[in-house]
Write a structure and sequence with these properties.
Layout (H helix, E strand, L loop, with lengths): L5 E8 L11 E4 L7 E5 L4 E5 L19 E6 L6 E5 L9 E6 L2 E10 L8 E11 L4 E7 L9 E6 L3 E6 L2 E7 L9 E4 L4 E5 L4 E6 H6 L20 E4 L4 E8 L5 E7 L2 E6 L4 E6 L4 E9 L2 E8 L3 E6 L2 E7 L6 E7 L2 E8 L4 E7 L18 H33 E7 L4 E2 L13 E11 L3 E9 L4 E4 L2 E7 L3 E9 L9 E9 L5 E9 L6 E4 L7 E7 L6 H4 L1 H4 L10 E6 L7 E5 L5 E6 L2 H18 L8 E2 L6 H44 L7 H47 L5 H10 L12 H14 L6 H4 L13 H24 L18 H24 L4 H4 L5
């Protein structure tokens, strides 16, 4: 922001509902010594000001006086643009041209002198008007065709029609080439040409002679848009949209065109050569320019209400404005030359000049005392301690604050209801849904509350959000949860997030979760005796019968859950059956299925229901001591990677075919516009073939995209099953937090970063830190860059290494528990040879590794150990 501000000497506001743009103001002396400020609004109101600034002994007097507004006239049509020139034949005076959507009119300002100041009358007299058959966009004035002492009018329509009016008479009209939207239009007298901005972001130059030769000179009939357009004399590529253009004449009689783009200021000569360019680090809104000696002075307004003055490409001055203008001009008023006239889009008009406001701040003298590093270190330690204590207090305060504000209770209706959502998948299968009831009990008045309910696919919640404000009594929200797709369910966990805004404006969040009924997605099925994936969960208490663990399912199927084995299958009949078996003579459950995807939900339910059953028993624990299911997870990751690559390939193919289709269309249009007929048979065949390829590619892309969605859900199931097993392996808390952050059961593939890209980086980090095989691996640099995974084999290797090292680490801790403090140590003979010591320790290590590997890989024999699984 600039340190300086502009000085306001005169300002006025127009009506509240009026709007203006960059063409709504013109500054010209007309036929007077001082400049007139003329503005026209989109509501059709024309105002003409001539401020008279009086001077006294102290300073310049500012403010608007009633006599400054010399004319105000209301038109029935909006005013699009204003212009001043010699527009009446036989007169050397200047007239005012006003452009309406369907009319261009020329007025003359008539002054009737009076005896006193208030007796002077200004009258706007209509000289002539030309109706327009097409909606106008803008216009420009100039000595077209080399005429002297008279100006012609060039009107550009919204569809690219150029119409020339030779003062009171109609001239001709024609279309310009490559037109889509109208751009700024200026005229250069020296080369007798027009400059405009095309839709292809090119500055285009059209000679007046070429326009005249191709012009249509009958005012009754205008050429159609399919007529031959005039080609430009030269083009200059801008690579960005432009806002304004104007023409300046240098002291050397050279003309240049100043162009303001969205990011740059350009200066072109009349033959399309770039003289200089200034790149901005801000977004400009409008500008004006003038010549001072051999230099071009440009005044640019930025989006931060700052006026910046450039001499060619050098910034000379900047100042802050009081508001954000849309138009800026220079004017020579009475008693003030070179004043800046700025106009906002809502009708604020102001006259100002550049000035400064001195700052009252005086910098204190510098203190050159030597630093005491020991004292600074003590102060730093005390501040760090205070910040840490304050952070802990804020966390406690936040929790206490939420408890004092409201209580949130979650309850799932145990009885499943008939699904009332016709578009859901539940209507085709079990036709059931469950209702989640959320009770909010406020203790104080709550200003704003928003509830968000989140479930995993293929489950769907309706509605997903609730909003309530300014309440102090208990309120209740009810939402329906049902199946929406024919897929396996990653988890039945439903998260509810309550967000409130405190009185001081700070946000607070409270998150709770609840388990949804198992009967919503699962039904009883005959158990399977043999399966590919098996998981054994051991508990330190007596086994709980299946009928006790699953009472909600036993109500409808009492015979299925009466034994020591039960099967569970998805209600949509997708996936594999999962069996739960109880050991006869050991405290162990076996969960088995032919797919880890189908196994996931029952692992989660067994851990959850056993924990809920023994929730009052502090010594209860669940343990998983086997090998983690690595192979099914790796297979699912491989499939997800291949399907994702196929989707990306189809996207690129579709992009190429679309570009090819557009090129063929352009070629067809070019041949249709040609004067000589050309057969279009080959292009028609190519167009049809390309269209069929696009249709086939879109169908294939939709199929692969649906397959990708399915694979994402299956991968989420595998990750959730893996995390549930790791949580019951008694993993160190710090390591468990890292593992959970890596194997989050949420798979998201964005445009430039896939799930594999993030997980691969995290796996390398684990292998070089917490799960490093040796100290040498820990010394390697940690992976901190995300790169696209090109070879899935490398990632599969890292994934297997992480899971294997985690399983091996937990097995070693189980078979070799750490020694307790204060336990007696064996006293060895001090005179025993060191080599014998090394040999004994090596043999013990080898035998321990052998026993551990046998224990991990050997499947226990049910008859030999007496642990028969029924």
């Amino acid at each position: 922001m600039s340190l300086f501000k502009t000085k306001n000497v005169w300002s006025i506001y127009c009506e509240d509902d009026e709007t203006f743009d960059q063409n709504s103001m013109v500054v010209s002396p007309l036929n007077s010594e001082a400049d007139f400020i003329i503005i026209g609004s989109h509501h059709g109101v024309l105002r003409m000001f001539q401020p008279v600034l009086e001077m006294n002994e102290d300073a310049l007097q500012t403010g608007f006086k009633a006599s400054d507004l010399i004319l105000e006239k209301s038109f029935s049509d909006p005013i699009l643009q204003l212009g001043v020139g010699q527009l009446v034949s036989g007169s050397s005076l200047n007239q005012l041209a006003i452009l309406h959507p369907k009319l261009v009119a020329v007025y003359s300002l008539v002054v009737k002198e009076g005896v006193a100041e208030h007796g002077v009358q200004y009258i706007l007299k209509l000289m002539y008007a030309h109706p327009l058959k097409r909606s106008a966009a803008n216009f420009t004035l100039g000595h077209f065709g080399g005429t002297l002492n008279r100006d012609f009018i060039c009107v550009q329509s919204l569809d690219g029609l150029i119409t020339i009016f030779e003062q009171e008479s109609y001239g001709f009209c024609c279309f310009i080439s490559t037109f889509l939207l109208p751009g700024p239009l200026v005229y250069v007298r020296k080369t007798d040409s027009f400059f405009t901005f095309g839709s292809n972001w090119f500055i285009q130059c059209y000679k007046y002679k070429n326009l005249y030769d191709a012009g249509h000179r009958t005012s009754d009939e205008e050429p159609s848009t399919t007529s031959t357009s005039v080609l430009s004399d030269w083009d200059y590529q801008m690579n960005e949209p432009i806002l304004e253009m104007n023409v300046q004449e240098l002291a050397t009689k050279e003309y240049v065109v100043m162009i303001l783009g969205e990011q740059n200021l350009y200066c072109l000569n009349l033959y399309g050569k770039l003289k200089f360019m200034k790149r901005f680090d801000f977004s400009p809104l409008c500008f004006t320019s003038y010549v001072l000696g051999d230099n071009i002075i440009s005044i640019v307004i930025s989006e931060t209400s700052t006026v910046l003055i450039y001499q060619n490409t050098t910034l000379k001055w900047s100042a802050q404005l009081n508001f954000l203008p849309i138009n800026i001009k220079r004017a020579n008023l009475w008693n003030l030359k070179g004043c800046l006239i700025i106009l906002s889009d809502d009708g604020r008009l102001e006259c100002c000049y550049l000035g400064t406001e001195p700052s009252l701040f005086v910098a204190p003298p510098l203190n050159y005392q030597e630093l005491d590093f020991e004292k600074a270190e003590e102060e730093l330690a005390s501040l760090t301690k205070a910040i840490k204590e304050l952070s802990n207090d804020e966390i406690k305060l936040s929790n206490d604050f939420l408890d004092k504000q409201f209580t949130m209770n979650l309850q799932v209706d145990p009885e499943l209801k008939t699904c009332t959502h016709e578009d859901s998948l539940s209507m085709a299968f079990n036709n059931q849904m469950c209702q989640l009831i959320i009770d909010i009990i406020p203790h104080n008045r709550v200003g704003e509350l928003q509830l968000s309910i989140m479930v995993h696919r293929p489950l769907k919640c309706s509605p997903t959000t609730f909003f309530h404000s300014n309440f102090k009594e208990k309120i209740q929200f009810v939402c329906d949860i049902f199946l929406d797709e024919e897929l396996e369910v990653p988890t039945l966990k439903c998260d509810v997030v309550a967000s409130i805004i405190t009185e001081n404006g700070s946000p607070r969040n409270l998150t709770k979760y609840v388990m949804l009924p198992l009967g919503l997605v699962v039904k009883f099925s005959p158990p399977q005796k043999e399966s590919e994936v098996k998981v054994n969960l051991s508990i330190n208490r007596d086994l709980v019968p299946i009928s006790v663990l699953f009472p909600d399912l036993m109500q409808d199927n009492p015979m299925e859950a009466s034994g020591n084995a039960a099967g569970f299958a998805n209600v949509t009949e997708c996936g594999k059956t999962t069996s739960v078996l109880l050991a006869k003579s050991s405290q162990r459950y076996r969960i088995q299925s032919d797919s880890l995807v189908s196994l996931n939900l029952m692992v989660e339910q067994m851990v959850h229901r056993l924990g809920r059953y023994f929730q009052d028993d502090e010594g209860f624990s669940i343990n998983f001591g086997g090998l983690l299911p690595i192979s099914p997870l790796v297979s699912c990751v491989n499939r997800h990677f291949r399907v994702r690559k196929e989707v990306v390939r189809l996207q690129e193919k579709l992009s190429v075919l679309s570009s090819q289709y557009r090129l063929i269309e352009k070629r067809l249009v070019a041949k249709l516009k040609a004067k000589t007929p050309i057969p279009l048979t080959k292009l028609g065949i190519l167009l049809n073939d390309t269209s069929m390829d696009i249709s086939n590619t879109i169908e294939e892309f939709m199929e692969k995209n649906a397959e990708l969605s399915k694979v994402q859900v299956e991968l989420e199931c595998c990750l959730n099953a893996l995390m549930n097993l790791i949580r019951v392996m008694d993993v160190d808390k710090k390591l468990l937090i890292l593992i959970e952050s890596v194997f989050q059961p949420f798979v998201c593939d964005i445009e430039n970063q896939n799930w594999e890209d993030v997980v691969e980086c995290n796996l390398q980090y684990l292998l070089r830190t917490s799960l490093a095989k040796s100290e040498k691996d820990k010394l390697r640099a940690e992976c901190s860059s995300f790169e696209e995974v090109q070879d899935i084999t490398k990632m599969e290797k890292h994934l297997s290494q992480v899971l294997e090292r985690l399983s091996r680490k937990m097995a070693l801790e189980t078979f070799n528990p750490p020694e307790e403090k204060g336990s007696p140590k064996l006293i060895e003979d001090e005179k025993q040879p060191i080599g014998l010591e090394i040999g004994k320790s090596s043999s013990r290590i080898l035998s321990a590794r052998a026993r551990n590997s046998n224990a991990l890989t050997r499947i226990p024999d049910s008859k030999a150990e007496g642990n028969e699984i029924v």
